[in-house]
Each structure stands twice: as C-alpha cells, then as structure tokens.
Specification:
2 strands; single chain; mainly alpha
C-alpha cells in the first residue's frame, strides 16, 4: 500500500512461487485503475495526521504544565 520497491517482480527458482510486490502508486493504480488515487488517499491521511499531532501536542503541553505546577507547589509547601 505504501513504500517503494525498485524490483517489483520477485523471482523464485520455482516459478509457481514468483510474484509481484507493488508499492505505493503502482499498488493503488492496479486496484483502482486510477493513477492519481494514491494522492487522493494520502492527502486526507496527511491532514488527519497533522490534526492528530496538534491535538496530542496540546494535551502533552497541558500535562507538562500541570505536572510542573504540582512539583512547584510541592516544593513551596515543603519549604514553608
């Protein structure tokens, strides 16, 4: 479904075990007949991935701030 393979034909001594490994654009074109399908699939995936990363970063920073606040409060309470 993704990747690159410059030698898609996998030859075996036993010809019944030879096969083709299609990656990326070649794979999507084979199953759909549309040589642009991979772009139509990848773009929404990329956009979704970027949204997810932003969401995760936001949660991570929020948690870091909460933990920092807890540590600071802990030390303030111990010194007073």
């Amino acid at each position: 479904m993704y990747g690159i393979d410059n030698m898609p034909h996998k030859v075996n001594k036993d010809t019944d075990l030879s096969y083709y490994k299609l990656c990326g654009q070649s794979f999507w074109e084979l199953i759909s007949g549309d040589d642009e399908l991979y772009k139509k699939i990848i773009q929404p995936l990329d956009e979704g991935s970027k949204k997810k990363r932003r969401s995760v970063k936001k949660l991570l920073y929020k948690k870091i701030n909460e933990m920092t606040k807890d540590v600071v409060l802990f030390f303030i309470q111990r010194t007073t």
